[in-house]
Design a protein that fits this description.
The protein is of the alpha/beta class and about 500 residues long. The chain is built from 22 helices and 16 strands. It is globular. The structure holds pyridoxal-5'-phosphate.
Amino acid sequence: MSVMYKSTRNSSEKMTASEAILKGLSDDGGLYVPESIPALDVDLDKLAKMDYRQVAYEVMSRMLSDFTEEELKHCIDSAYDDKFDTSVIAPLVNKAGANYLELFHGSTIAFKDMALSILPYLLVTSAKKNKVTNEIVILTATSGDTGKAALAGFADVPGTKIIVFYPKNGVSPIQEKQMVTQKGDNTYVVGIVGNFDDAQTGVKNMFNDKNLLKDMNDKGYQFSSANSINIGRLVPQMVYYVYAYTRLVADGKIKAGDKINVVVPTGNFGNILAAYYAKEMGLPIAKFICASNENKVLYDFFETGIYDKNREFILTSSPSMDILISSNLERLIYRIADDDSEKNKELMNALSSSGKYEISADMKAKLSEFYGNYATEEETAETIKRVYESDGYIMDTHTAVASTVYEKYKADTNDETPTVIASTASPYKFTRSVMEAIDKSYASQSDFELVDELNKLSKVKIPQAIEDIRSAAVLHDTVCNKSEMEATVRKILGL
Ligand SMILES: *Cc1c(COP(=O)(O)O)cnc(C)c1O
């Protein structure tokens, strides 16, 4: 079956998966969504015997139906190789009564690698398929992890340039160091004076700026996006939910067809939306437990049906979730509006004009599979300490938000359904917050001393990504105001 994609804000225009991947964001400001989600018509028991790459092929070939088998297998094999420090790619670890799906074994030690190690291959293949001759400029806003993962994925990929904007004071020291030491002649990293939402809005505006797009085209450039608004990121993220489920089957913890819950530490809503799409494909998921930090706009939305970003932006110890405009929620809104692009557009226009919208009672009724809650900074730190002391397992701050919310969910519902918690970053990426959660007296030590202490406590090998930045030189030091983002891009591209 061939799957076509259309915008959440205009249902008349249809395109193939490769065209949607190339464009990233629709001209009308909408996001590309599959017209219908194909069934995963392979036995779950059969998938349980496959390895990560084979599962990836089964899932992705159905969603990206215009890629040939050869093209897709080339992308998958190039992405999920020894860049990952374990051959299983995404280990499922049972600790403290839950299954942690460790999505941080790629080259930048956060879950963004799961999609961003394959996106460059999907994009270059898409360009070839569509006879694009322009150079592709990847323009990306990051709350910390996307930026590095995208830089690592695209560095020195022929026919591409990558420009990353990050909030200068809104990422962890290790996240920043990882980005500003990035090698590759086609990589550009810019700090902005502002927060992630400013960066994301600036990027979205450039995507829709007709003058800029024309000037770029004249010079032989066109934009694409590595942000989770690109469907080429969402589809690879569906894979690991199918993979996790089938590992539980393989381990005899569930039988094929039994339901599981998933808990996802959520920011831009991409990761949890991939789980939702996996369910629409046929994966038996009962509840989507959406975990927020103190920027709890999503929790409030699931409680009240009102999305309201007019509130204080809080910098937390889980910076990759410090987001008030959850872009991918638009894809869910579109689904619960029965794929009505006009209705969706109305709500999104309200969001951009007043920062707020309210869904109808009918739409809200369709959110019954979602449970939202949030963790305070204190609760997050307590969870890290408690699980370390009980099980010797040290999780990062984002995963700890999810773990805390899972405990709240169990207390609220007494639901004992087997559950997978998406573990989205290595504790080594947020070493300072993690170590201070375990013992406040670590506060006096330097970042790299803390790395060594974490190694002693966790007995987990220090990832190569951390070793690499201990002594690496800073190669990027551009900083600009949020109003200067376009000028910065023009300067980089020589427009
Ligand atoms: C990006 C990120 C998240 C949030 O994922 P979304 O898909 O944006 O909801 C959570 N944790 C970590 C470590 C991340 O890098």
